[in-house]
Amino acid sequence: MTQDGPGGGRRVVVTGAAGFVGRALCARLAADGWQVTALVRRPSPDLPAGVAARVVGDLAAPDADLAALVAGADAVAHLAAKVHVMRPTPADEADFRRVNTDLTRRLAEAAAAAGVRRFLFLSTIKVNGDGTAPGRPYRADDPPAPTDAYGRSKAEAEAALAAVAAAHPGFETVVIRPPVVYGPGVAANIAALARLCDTGLPLPFGATRNARSLISVDNLTDAAAVALAAPAAGQRTYLVRDGEDVSTGELIRRLRRAQGRPARLVPVPQGAMTAALRLLGRGALADRLFGSLTVDDGPIRAELGWQPPLTLDQGLARMLGRG
């Protein structure tokens, strides 16, 4: 570990460090000169070199000594969360509140009391909602409009953070709301789409007109690292993306180009496919395939000078192991 770089040898505690984004963020922060302590539920052999692991079990447990875990830290990057599920049960909804809302509040209170200066929270674009109209991307200052328990739990966590910051002068929070995140090892819907593309079969998405913002894990962790260190980021919320929005058909075209395959897109009318899926009771799938969700990343660019280091094409190539 070097003390050169934005971290300057300061200590940061990272929760959710063994996850898809957490591992990448730990590597980036260590490279930036932070002393990184990774909080993990169980021993993890996949943590980057130069990162100190601390096995802590369930952070959301009532008896978790959060104060001891953040003592002596200059910053906290809070990524631990119960992630979104398609059909949440009542038990899932209770866990969303326990892990995403209550833990965030308790951890922020412990950090503020310990003298931590900067608290970065990885939230979700679902705080804004589930879809945008053409030409009207989500903005950070839009009124929260979550449509499910996961989004509500994150919106409530953001409100709790703001309350802790208001009660503790000098305690600065930074919130980042990403859209769909992809990259090497991702297990989300985009990985299934990539596998479908790799079959080479013709796909009926040549006439899609929707627009989606995406962000690669490399771009997301770059934005998080910049925001964690930037003085101007205190008490700010940022939406982030790769830099261009694409339709489902264009995303398939880009994936197949990265795979070295022809696009093979059939121009079936989007309306017809949407209607057919809804008749089959697959309305949620229709929304994911043909709905739009775009974000305005202007503030993080203007205020912090952030630019995504990878283009969408470069990010997709890296996800596929070809970049």
Automatic annotation (TrEMBL):
<dbReference type="GO" id="GO:0004029">
    <property type="term" value="F:aldehyde dehydrogenase (NAD+) activity"/>
</dbReference>
<dbReference type="Pfam" id="PF01370">
    <property type="entry name" value="Epimerase"/>
</dbReference>
<protein>
    <submittedName>
        <fullName>Nucleoside-diphosphate-sugar epimerase</fullName>
    </submittedName>
</protein>
<feature type="domain" description="NAD-dependent epimerase/dehydratase">
    <location>
        <begin position="12"/>
        <end position="236"/>
    </location>
</feature>
<dbReference type="InterPro" id="IPR051783">
    <property type="entry name" value="NAD(P)-dependent_oxidoreduct"/>
</dbReference>
<dbReference type="InterPro" id="IPR036291">
    <property type="entry name" value="NAD(P)-bd_dom_sf"/>
</dbReference>
<dbReference type="GO" id="GO:0005737">
    <property type="term" value="C:cytoplasm"/>
</dbReference>
<dbReference type="InterPro" id="IPR001509">
    <property type="entry name" value="Epimerase_deHydtase"/>
</dbReference>
